[in-house]
Write a structure and sequence with these properties.
Blueprint: H1 2-19, H2 28-42, H3 45-54, H4 61-83, E1 89-91, H5 95-104, H6 111-130, H7 133-140, H8 143-165, E2 168-171, E3 175-178, H9 184-201, H10 207-221, H11 237-243, H12 257-286, H13 299-316, E4 321-323, H14 327-332, H15 338-354, H16 356-360, H17 364-378, H18 390-406, H19 409-426, H20 435-450
Length: 452
């Protein structure tokens, strides 16, 4: 018993020394629960990304799965090591669709050529981060917009949760409509939502994770979702090394010309940069990680982890790696340090590589309650917006509204920047706007005009 207590004490000492838990007002148990919470809400990428890449016909599901898991784990470990932040990274949704449907199937890039383009965009990220350009952009964003970005991401996350739960459905006449509230998945999702909310009201540790587990078990027991087909699955490393690993074709990019190549690289770069900036601002705003000036300390290190992760991901065989907005679920569960990120990374390696049947069996509607709750929590930043000044209110509202309605964080930021610069300039308040905001507004306009 004495030896066991000494071992626990040593482990706590290691975690404290490495991640400075007390300084951040947290403990190891909270961080680990937060890590599993984040992993559960983003584990879908283990299945979705390989399925998308498999549609190119150039890579098998097994090879793409290993590339996805390894790149996610590596980049998330790097976030913990460089910045000691609780953010998780993985191949970005939206960016992977652009990679498959636009670049490979649309423009005719081969899989290795597309990976090479992603790698180059990662190098551009690294250079811009090393020179401080990306951090300067964050500092140039006014505080009202930062609050709006946080609230917009919250609404976006809640929208994703409501969609996964079946509460929101598409409609050809009205675009969106109420889903079938009598459907079993929707009922279970709502039960999970109420359970999670009640647990949070009662201040139960790990409420969000417990809610997901309860919803999943209910889905399996009631046969609304199939039980896992197995528990253990051995990863096919042979397929990965032969199909994905280090398959970049830089030489083949020459056939697309400088203009065509720059357009593709710029698209990868632009979307990832502003998705990452938006996620870092939004999640850190919710968790009070920002300093008194409204900036995130060690933003440069967090962005460097994102940039290096993209290069590693391309080498491993997957499109752009980015910081995941689902990190907000772990932060909402109390995650404040890199120990949360380390937990996510280990979960990716263990469950993604060896227990993938279990991950595949977790239905999307089981994670929906977590996303909805996180959306509620992140909307709190809306109270910090100065709604009495229309030159601040309209751009902020643009960020909040456009993100969920266009299914894109970067689009919300783009509309907010353009509106902010235009309204301030035309109302005689142009001097209040940082010159970078004007430059970025012009770039966003050019993006909308020439990049479809």
């Amino acid at each position: 018993m004495a030896n066991s207590k000494k071992q626990v004490s040593k482990e706590q000492g290691f975690f404290e020394k490495t991640f400075k838990l007390k300084e951040h007002g947290t403990d190891a148990r909270t961080e680990i629960i937060a890590g599993f919470t984040t992993f559960m809400t983003m584990a879908y990428i283990i299945v979705v990304n390989p399925s998308l890449l498999n549609e190119t016909g150039a890579v098998s599901f097994d090879a793409a799965l290993i590339a996805t898991v390894l790149s996610s784990a590596f980049a998330t470990f790097l976030m913990a090591a460089l910045a000691n932040y609780p953010f998780a990274l993985a191949p970005g949704m939206g960016l992977n669709a652009f990679f498959v449907y636009s670049v490979i199937l649309g423009l005719g890039y081969t899989y290795p050529q597309a990976l090479a383009a992603v790698f180059i965009s990662g190098v551009v990220f690294i250079l811009l981060t090393a020179t401080g350009a990306r951090q300067a952009i964050v500092r140039a964003i006014p505080n009202n917009l930062k609050s709006g970005i946080g609230a917009g991401i919250g609404l976006f996350i809640a929208f994703l949760g409501l969609k996964s739960a079946g509460v929101i459905a598409s409609n050809p006449a009205t675009f969106l409509a109420l889903g079938d509230m009598t459907a079993a998945p929707t009922i279970l999702a709502m039960v999970g939502l109420i359970v999670t909310a009640v647990l949070m009201v009662k201040n139960v540790k790990g409420s969000i994770l417990i809610g997901m587990f309860i919803t999943t078990i209910l889905a399996w027991v009631t046969k609304v979702a199939p039980m896992p087909e197995g528990i253990f699955a051995w990863p096919n490393f042979g397929a990965w090394t032969s199909e994905s690993f280090l398959k970049l074709d830089f030489a083949g990019l020459g056939q697309f010309g400088i203009t065509g190549l720059i357009e593709v690289i710029f698209a990868f770069f632009f979307v990832d940069m502003f998705d990452t900036i938006g996620t870092l601002i939004g999640v850190s705003k919710r968790s009070n990680m920002m300093d008194k000036d409204g900036n995130l300390p060690k933003m440069d290190k967090a962005m460097m982890a994102d940039a290096i992760g993209t290069c590693f991901g391309a080498a491993a065989g997957t499109p752009t790696v980015t910081t995941y907005v689902e990190s907000a679920s772990g932060v909402a569960a109390g995650g404040r340090t890199g120990l949360t990120a380390v937990t996510v990374a280990l979960a990716f390696l263990v469950f993604g590589l060896f227990f993938s049947p279990i991950v595949k069996a977790v239905p999307g509607f089981a994670t929906a309650p977590a996303l909805i709750i996180v959306g509620v929590l992140m909307m709190q930043s809306i109270k910090d917006v100065n709604w009495d000044d229309m030159s601040e209110a309209l751009p902020t509202f643009a960020a909040i509204a456009i993100m969920p309605f266009t299914f894109s964080i970067s689009n919300g930021i783009a509309f907010a920047f353009i509106a902010y610069a235009a309204v301030k300039l035309l109302s005689g308040k142009g001097k209040d706007v940082h010159w970078l905001m004007y430059l970025l507004s012009v770039l966003f306009i050019l993006k909308f005009a020439f990049l479809k």
